[in-house]
Amino acid sequence: MRRRFALILSVLPVMLFPRSGNPAPVGTEIDAPERLQTLVREATCAEASATSSAKLNGTSLSGVLSGSTAAGTIFYVSPDGKDSWSGRLPIADQQGGDGPFASIERARDAAREKGGTNTIALGKGDYYLTQPIVFDARDAGLILTARCNEAPILHGGPRVRDWGQQADGRWTAPLKLPPDEGVGDLFVNGIRQTRARFPNAPADGDPRKGWLFAAKCNPAIDMREGNTRFCFHAGDLPAMGDTSGLGVDIVGGYQPGSQWGNDTLPVVSIDAAHRTVNTKGTGYFFTAEGSRYFLTGAKALLDAPGEWWYDLAAGELHYIPVDQSLPDSVVVAGTLPTFFKLDGANGMVVSGLEFRDGAPDGSGKFYTETRGFGAIRIEHAAGVKIVGNSIDNVGVGVHVTESKDALIVGNVIADVAGNGIYVGTNYGTFGKSNGARILSNHLHDIGKVYIETAGIWFQAADNVRIADNLIENTAQFGITGGSLWGSNDAVYNAIIEHNVIHNANQQTADGGAIKMMGEQGNPLNSIIRSNLVTGTGHLMNRADGTFWPPGYENTSEWPSPISWAIYTDGKASGLRIEGNTLSGNVTAIGINGGWSNLVVGNVITGGSGAAFRVDDSTGRGWRPPWASPNRIEGNTVSIDSSGGLAAYVYAPDHGPGYVQFAHNRYIGNLNDKSFRISPGIMRSGEFGSLLDLQKAGGDTGSVVVPAE
Q: Does residue 471 carry a pLDDT above 50?
């Protein structure tokens, strides 16, 4: 989980010194995100002195944590404490008559009784939560933090004990849960195990393995029915006498071979005679021939090491261990998607804690409230600070909704089922979350269950600043923002800068490292600048179940995988994309549907697809009075293969006035097919050289120079 980042610091030293202009020495051995997290914890721990925050001087967090150190009365909590004690001592006294509280709830209530701004300090050890802990307006200004140099760990469910081995090699343990509750995930020694599934998960973790592929329905079904049923090939599914608890994890789209959506849907029934799976679908999700899927959650599917199944009626957990050390392992049943809920708790601080082993809920489809949850969930609050925490193996790391001026700083968020950080709104009320600052976090391995997710996702949030974050290995997006529902969740004046994003879009057919949406149909007035993006990929299968190779792009094919390092979508307009370094991605920069965007001063190298891709499709027929052409100018582009496209423009509705190229510097393997422009304005036809484009008036002042 913790990695060395000497190379990052030598290439782009923004994680620690983003505005100093002084590169870190090549080969510097430093864990940049973890160093910042340590400094944040030291500045905000319970016994921190007023000078602790000075340790952050000279880093990207200088000055952002003033006023966050301990204040008022400190109430201590420990796994060894008692709620009958006063909570005023960090450890039990010699007589054993007083000491810390045992529960966070008791400390919260004591702080409320005391009044004023107080601190709850958690001591080292494991805290197994059985229900979310709720903070409200009575807890305004409360600081919930760790004792200095101690590591409290909060688990999102009970520890499972009393395992017994059965004759068939499976192990079982008693686990009584309320009727409306279940086990979302199972963790053994901090590692997420696999809910019983078919086909089994690939042992080597290859994302192209372990799938079935939907068949063409005969007779055909209406496209709109594809969200409630799909067909399977003869012999694909095992006999299923009991389908209770059965679900399907499916990646699909509305036409054969397209995969633009993902969800986990309950299975209603399986019609073996017509080879049809009937699901409880959503209003958004569709399936078609070639949609890939696996079944999960039924007892009959429990057959491989690492798989588990929970029998709610019997109150019993079933598990096939990977090895025989199970009785000595720490096993946690993840039952809680939310650990802390801060509802109206203005100015509250959560710092220096570790959250882990929660339920995976929290990142579902558009137009639903399944995004609600979050290990730390903030609602209707102002000035909350989430700083220096570790959040692992949960559904969503931090969720902010209809709250302003949230500060999310120096956290490590990893192996989450859905989004790492979500800042936005509730569908229906559409209150905004303005003024959020998301700074110097390390987010990695994002979207382990729900792949339509992001390291950072924001909407209905103006004046947001997202800076100096390290984001790695995401299922779809590194950072995505903007409106999905028009003016209701529009975003304005966002700044996305100095972030490092590696290996985004590893699981989907259409995604990228940084994306902005603009369904509200007016300028976002936002900036994407000085980010480093590498390794953005894609994953998409054809209708026959074979996969396109990594990095593949063919602008003449549809459906076909699409992958962007940075792009705008859905009428997103008025964006400045400036000074980014984009290396080893597929498409580097894309504009889809919007106007008045400026792409300037970026450096693009090592891409397998087009350097620039411009499409008017999501804005077809739309040209508002304020619209001016998109401009792509002053960029440096290296074309490393003879078939590489410098630019692909497809704008039949808006014609050549949709985009202007100027003063770009192209290096390497350009030829008479390096520019593909539609409608055809070049005398050479749809494909042409830079000179052909210039003669047609589509470019001014750009040059081609030979590779060194």
A: yes
